[in-house]
Write a structure and sequence with these properties.
Length: 347
């Protein structure tokens, strides 16, 4: 019976050093291999050219590197790039490179499918098949960093966890990936350039605050009226607004980091004065800003983009109450790379 080999990237640097010592080699070999795995993004042991052939064969006999492979890449007319990323077990996730004149942002996935049931989102219609491992999350970022340098002559500047999946339902692996992305032994990015977006998992927002994370927090709110929010995102019945509000107040008390609310306005759902007033009231609890996001249809009629007048009503009300609000026009719609559209249609 063949023993399944362990993914070598599940080992810490110390564990790698110990492995080499146990196998009658020098501990510094662990440092070399660790550098190849993370900062150099090696996909095979053969890539490790400053490691002897015998050592590479020993690694091959004991471990695998479960790296991702960019299966297909699509480029939008607006410059957005979408990667269909094949995992070692054949499953697919998607990640997106979003360029502007001043920055390049990676939108990365944290789960295959999604744990939640937001009715307006294509990804939520895929059942959650599994969580992504830290290395698989890291690889998405590494691939987009390389594409950013290739197509836009500059490194990746920002990362948002707004791809497939609910990041806080894969908390430990997301945190490990961010630790490596921000480490000098990884990509060395500032945590202030990373935003983790949640649909409002209150208890995990509190845990992030207790863990003193340094990245930014975004919350997909979409309604500050309980009944409407539950209709849009049925799972939120388990995380009611008063509980979410308390968790966000706790977050700000611990981190002093302003929250971003992601908010889509739909025709006939939350495009009324009651919804506007409720959002303004909710925004006053914790220092925040609001991104009003253009809706991207997913082939049904229940959710439709609200009128410009409805969105302007939100902007006017938020602005008059001293709350920063911006309209975010979606990128990559022609390749189904915009918010809520990631669903592996080509697979």
């Amino acid at each position: 019976m063949q023993i399944e080999k362990k993914d070598i990237r599940a080992l810490s640097k110390e564990q790698l050093r110990d492995f080499f010592v146990t196998n009658n080699d020098k501990a510094f070999r662990g440092n070399q291999v660790y550098e190849w795995l993370w900062s150099k993004g090696a996909h095979s042991f053969e890539d490790m050219t400053n490691v002897s052939k015998e050592t590479r064969q020993m690694l091959e006999g004991n471990f695998v590197i479960n790296h991702i492979k960019v299966d297909t890449m699509q480029r939008s007319s607006d410059g957005t790039v979408k990667n269909a990323v094949r995992l070692h077990d054949g499953l697919i996730v998607e990640s997106v490179l979003i360029p502007t004149e001043t920055r390049t942002t990676a939108c990365v996935s944290s789960q295959v499918g999604c744990s939640l049931d937001c009715n307006f989102c294509a990804t939520a219609r895929l059942k959650r098949m599994r969580n992504l491992e830290p290395g698989e999350i890291y690889d998405q970022v590494l691939a987009i960093d390389r594409e950013s340098k290739l197509y836009f002559n500059r490194p990746l500047s920002n990362i948002v966890f707004m791809g497939m999946g609910e990041p806080l339902m894969n908390y430990n692996n997301v945190i490990k990936a961010i630790d490596m992305i921000t480490s000098n032994e990884g990509l060395g990015m500032s945590p202030k350039r990373i935003t983790v977006s949640t649909s409002g998992v209150s208890k995990m927002i509190r845990k992030m605050a207790d863990d003193e994370v340094k990245f930014k927090l975004a919350v997909s709110l979409h309604s500050a009226i309980e009944e409407t929010r539950n209709r849009i995102m049925p799972f939120t019945k388990s995380f009611p607004l008063p509980e979410l509000r308390e968790a966000l107040e706790y977050w700000y008390h611990k981190t002093k980091s302003k929250i971003t609310y992601e908010y889509v306005v739909w025709k006939g759902i939350n495009d009324n004065k009651e919804s506007v007033d409720a959002l303004v009231k909710f925004c006053k609890y914790v220092p925040c800003k609001v991104n009003l996001i253009e809706y991207n249809p997913i082939d049904d009629g229940e959710f439709q983009q609200a009128s410009p007048e409805s969105i302007n009503a939100y902007i006017k009300a938020l602005d008059s109450n001293g709350i920063i609000a911006k309209v975010r026009h979606s990128r990559g719609k022609d390749i189904d790379a915009a918010c809520g559209q990631l669903a592996n249609k080509e697979v």
